[in-house]
């Protein structure tokens, strides 16, 4: 019969004080037993039990505090390592309590199945949880991938062991569990060691903690083998080892919080860097988009301007074409009568000459005849001033001749001007183009503008003569309008000058009008730029002139002295290049 309700097996010896006797004990167990037998007085027994209760109480306290602390952390940061650790602590504590006999006695009193199975099941449970914790805690998958993969083999062996135990092979199962615990402890040690060598800071804590526990186990086993004495330290070496292990692991886990925080900070910094990078990329893309939008807008604006210019050119060309047709028609109609006049002048002069010769003979012979009937004729001859008329006749014929010549000249000019709708490049005399343009402009001059021509002999220029006439017309028209717009007493002057410079022809048209202010001069070739009143100017004359000259591969420039006039210079190549031929 046990002496007192206590997990320890203590019996009163039925031997009276001062006598001797023999005591027999029959012991049955499913696992190996170490049976140190000690004789103690009741006082010693009580003191011993108090010490044991104190040590185990402290142990349970430490383990529970560790478990609760880490459980709390698990709920805070939701890291699985902490949960495995809490379960591991509970399992280790239960195993230790089972080993010391506390478990069967207090936690599952009278439960034979648990009393016999607990040590094996709890040992394997602890090993499994220790495994899982180690895998999570020291990242075995990353640091020791090969050993990590072996892990499940142990689980199969653990399951086999429990199966053996449950199928009545308790002794074999117990021995197998012991063996497996030893091997798995070394396996975990090896993983921790390798991970530590490969730079895992956590593995260091694990290694220290695990070593503390293993030292406890070794001391316990060595004591059981009789190499160490039975005392409180050797008896409770396993709980002490596991308590130290758990405390050290808690340090490791606390350190893990730092690592997690650092990782979090790093990932936040990385996320920040990525978002800044994204922002930068978006900003760059925006800038690029803006540039593209600007480019497109400019291109759109250009094509819009081009469209407007082309439209106006078409309208203008149409206008010029009808003007051309009109002038060509008029020129043709006038040409025939003028030809009659011109061609009839020489026979008229000859016939009148003949008539005058005969008349002179008649007068000569008549003066010698004294006939009163002739006196009347002589009086009439005198009153008509026949001599004056005869002298005048020559002047009249000369003036008819000159008039007819001038008319023929005008007709030629008009025909020249009307060559507007020719598509092909032609060899043309630009001086002629200038003169015929001036002819059309002449009515506008109103005796207030004088045209000075300083035309050098020009070789034929390969061009669209009609289009160049339009250029001269637009520039001359502006010059005349500029002068007419002035309040001046004297006559305005427009000078037209043509020169050959190298393989180019330069036509300069200058006036002594008001000139162009510097703020305006840069814009005069812009389409729709005008300083004239609505209805007076469209702002297209010079822009059309510009594009015509450009198509001839030439250039047009302007210079002006405000208050003293403006000068436009049109430079054209004598011969067009193939490319210019295509463009023109
Ligand atoms: P528009 O004559 O219809 O105004 P242009 O393109 O021919 O259009 O001319 C643009 C502007 O250039 C004129 O409005 C005028 O201000 C200026 N300009 C052109 N030629 C002269 C000139 N000879 N003297 C002064 N200003 C001129």
Describe this structure in words.
This protein is an alpha+beta fold. The chain has three domains: 42-260, Up-down Bundle (Rhopdopsin 7-helix transmembrane proteins); 314-418; 424-584, 2-Layer Sandwich (Heat Shock Protein 90), CATH 3.30.565.10. Helices cover 69% and strands 8% of the residues. It has helices spanning 42-77, 80-99, 102-107, 112-137, 140-143, 145-166, 170-197, 201-224, 232-235, 237-366, 372-384, 386-417, 430-445, 465-484, 518-521, 541-551, 578-583; strands at 426-428, 449-455, 461-463, 492-501, 504-511, 555-561, 565-573. The strands form two sheets. The chain has a five-stranded mixed sheet with strand order 2-4-5-7-6. A hairpin with a 2-residue loop joins strand 4 (492-501) and strand 5. Helix 1 (42-77) runs antiparallel to helix 2 (80-99), helix 2 runs antiparallel to helix 10 (237-366) and helix 10 (237-366) packs antiparallel against helix 12 (386-417). It is rod-shaped, with a radius of gyration of 64 Å. It starts with 41 loop residues before the first helix and ends with a helix. It binds adenosine-5'-diphosphate. Adenosine-5'-diphosphate (ADP) binds next to helix 14 and helix 16.
TL;DR?
This protein has 584 residues and is α+β, with helices and mostly antiparallel strands.
